[in-house]
């Protein structure tokens, strides 16, 4: 069932800057439609022609400082009063547009660089596998072929231990998360 919100101070409008005010504290994004916000979220509606993206990018640039303003013992939270007192350097509208455009240009370049990095990592992985196979094929003298089962006791998933089987001394337990991409433990 869909729940509807009628409280005007709990409704974010398209273009509002959504800000997480508790665990974790910091800017999230822009609302792309009208939506009701929960108590861990604040909607900042820029006034007087201030660009929403200008506000969002500024808040993202000071995210660590906003987080430091959080208080609480169970989880961090920033109060509305603290947010309202947060200094905000307001640039004239043409300058806001220039700043937003410059940031988005740099973010686009960063996205492209990340995509190239992921592609390079995939190529390196295939290259590493090819090098290993070529080295093995070049050096190995195959006398006979056996299955893994014929070579050793083989366990696909490893044993499952009860909590009574763990001790402070004995043989260490090795998990896949204990081995890095190069095979080092």
Structure description:
By secondary structure, this protein is of the alpha+beta class. The strands form 2 sheets. Strands 3-2-5 form a 3-stranded antiparallel beta sheet. The chain has a two-stranded antiparallel sheet with strand order 1-4. β2 and β3 form a beta hairpin. The chain is elongated. The mean pLDDT is 85.
Give the C-alpha Rg. 27 Å
Give the SSE string: EEEEEHHHHH
How many H/I helices? 5
Annotation, overall tally of beta strands: 5
Distance between the termini: 50 Å
Q: Strand order across the biggest sheet?
A: 3-2-5
- Fraction of helical residues: 25-40%
- Specify the overall morphology: elongated
Low-confidence stretches: none
Strand content: 5-15%
Describe the sheet with the most strands: 3 strands, antiparallel
Averaging pLDDT over every residue, what do you get?
85
Q: Structural class, from helix and strand content?
A: alpha+beta
Précis, in short:
This protein has five helices and five strands, in the order βββββααααα.
Tell me the layout of helices and strands.
Blueprint: E1 11-12, E2 17-21, E3 25-30, E4 35-36, E5 41-44, H1 52-61, H2 63-68, H3 80-84, H4 93-139, H5 148-151
Antiparallel strand pairs: 1-4, 2-3, 2-5
């Amino acid at each position: 069932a869909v729940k509807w919100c009628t409280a005007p101070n709990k409704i974010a409008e398209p273009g509002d800057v959504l800000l997480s005010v508790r665990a974790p504290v910091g800017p999230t994004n822009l609302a792309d439609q009208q939506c009701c916000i929960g108590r861990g979220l604040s909607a900042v509606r820029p006034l007087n022609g201030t660009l929403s993206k200008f506000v969002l990018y500024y808040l993202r640039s000071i995210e660590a400082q906003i987080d430091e303003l959080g208080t609480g013992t169970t989880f961090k939270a920033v109060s509305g009063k603290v947010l309202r007192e947060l200094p905000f350097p307001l640039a004239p509208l043409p300058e806001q547009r220039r700043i937003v455009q410059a940031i988005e240009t740099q973010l686009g370049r960063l996205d492209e660089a990340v995509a190239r990095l992921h592609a390079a990592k995939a190529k390196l992985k295939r290259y590493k596998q090819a090098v290993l196979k070529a080295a093995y094929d070049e050096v190995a003298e195959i006398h006979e072929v056996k299955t893994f089962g014929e070579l050793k006791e083989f366990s696909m998933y490893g044993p499952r231990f009860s909590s009574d089987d763990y001790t402070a001394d004995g043989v260490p337990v090795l998990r896949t998360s204990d081995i890095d991409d190069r095979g080092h433990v």
